[in-house]
Amino acid sequence: MLSKTSYKTPVGILYLIADDQILLAAGFTGFSELTKRLSPLDANRKSETVEQIPVISDLIDDYFSGDTSALNSIQVRQSGPAFSQSVWKAMRKVPVGKTWSYSELAKRAGSASAVRAVGSACANNLIAPIIPCHRIIKSGGALGNYAYGDEVKEWLLRHEGALK
Question: Which of 2, 26, 87, 88 has the fewest CB atoms below 10 angstroms from its CB?
Fold first, then answer.
């Protein structure tokens, strides 16, 4: 059975869906939107709303309380093509307080010429901000788009020390 919970943050409610200790979805849009984007296998599983998800809720709390590296300890799983998997894995290696360009991420994911595919993988990331797509910016330094809004992206980057 999947567990669902929500967490009040300074930038809105963060919704979480997990399979035991593995986070399957996280975002600021609500359970129904996240569930629609789960793999068909997970989307059709029964779920229950809980007050907290052991370990995951504590690490989310630690992150928003100032321990900005706490998200690194959360185990994640999401379905997607092989290259997207490479992008998401590389994205988790962006240090807290730093940003990478889409082209840098493409290089680190194994295909320097696949910048557009990197953008698609960022857009399809179902586990934000734990898989930190907010740390990916345009080559010229502009923040770029963020599924949950520019103000959320900017707040997360300021919280992590990447923006002053």
Answer: 2
Q: Where are the beta strands (DSSP E) in the chain?
A: 2-9, 12-19, 22-27, 47-49, 75-76, 100-101, 136-137
| Strand ranges (E), 21-131 | 22-27, 47-49, 75-76, 100-101
Pairing mode, if any, of strands 12-19 and 47-49?
A: unpaired
Give CA separation, 6 vs 37, 108, 111, in Å. 17, 32, 36
User: In a 10 Å sphere around its CB, with 0-12 CB exposed, 13-18 middle and 19+ buried, how is residue 120 labelled?
Assistant: middle
Where do the domains of the chain lie?
Answer: 2-75, 80-159
Return the CATH class of domain 80-159: mainly alpha
Give me the CATH code for the 2-75 domain, please: 3.30.160
Catalytic residue annotation? 133
